[in-house]
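Box 4.2: Ligand-aware structure prediction
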Amino acid sequence: MPAPANVATGVHLVRVPMPAGGLPYSLAYLLEDAEGGVHVIDPGSPSPETLPLLANALGALGHALADVRTILVTHLHADHAGAAGALRAATGARILMHERERDALAADVAASVGGAGVRRRDAETVDGWGVPPERRPELLALPSLPIAGVAAPDATLADGELLALPGLRLRAFWTPGHTGGHLCFDDEERGLLFTGDHVLPTVNSGLGLGGAEFDPIGDYLRSLLRVAALDRRALPGHEEPFDRLAERCAELAEHHLRRAREARDALRSRPDATVWQVAEGMTWTGGWAALAGFALRSALAQTAMHRAFVRSGAPIAW
Ligand SMILES: [Zn+2]
């Protein structure tokens, strides 16, 4: 196992493999405080290897699992928060996240009882998109989003809240978009921003992936604007730490504005167009006809958000 990488004084990065695929690993961060305690940001996937990997990383820094005091969660996805419950059980540390993530987890648990609620929810979503009957089965056969099984928090964090950790100033920064309760963590003194999946250096994170959401596109554009105003080195939840945070925020905003303009143009010629009909008229890598299964569901989900954003009448600007 590789030793954790030091990214700043008292801040260490651990690459945690993602058995579910997609990206090769998530990034967990270990923050040492002034009293021998350690605080973990996004412990990673719920695989049996995660806890030994974190224990090993702590050992390489001269710490034990028992030194872990706090588990900070940027958002409820299993590749970030999936190991939080096991880490809490092994350490007694407290899990902290935004209240919207707590509520979304509770709603997911409620809907998952017997599986019927999730199937009904998925069917309603697919019907609301105006999917032709012959394409329904492939969408309904897909598994639901991977948030099931993530541990409930011990306490929640509000936007702007300063965490009281010995010798550390870490502020919770609410950045809804990827999920409704996504948090970045701002280390003002060291000029670091832990960005979770809000801003990644090259990957474009999907939006609205945290259960019931109100306005993911508008939320995300506003969250990008707030983060772009900070002069920080970005420590993301995947890939590698990066500078040029403001530039990356602008790229991501422009991507969504471009999609919103496409949706607006489709709705101009056909104001009653369903999500399916709007998506047909948008540009897709590899073409619309080639989209199937998970990629098709993702394309429709993203189109639904851009269509709703346009129909809300919000200015398509950043
Ligand atoms: Zn995520």
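In the box above, the bound molecule is zinc ion. DSSP finds ten helices and twelve strands in the chain.
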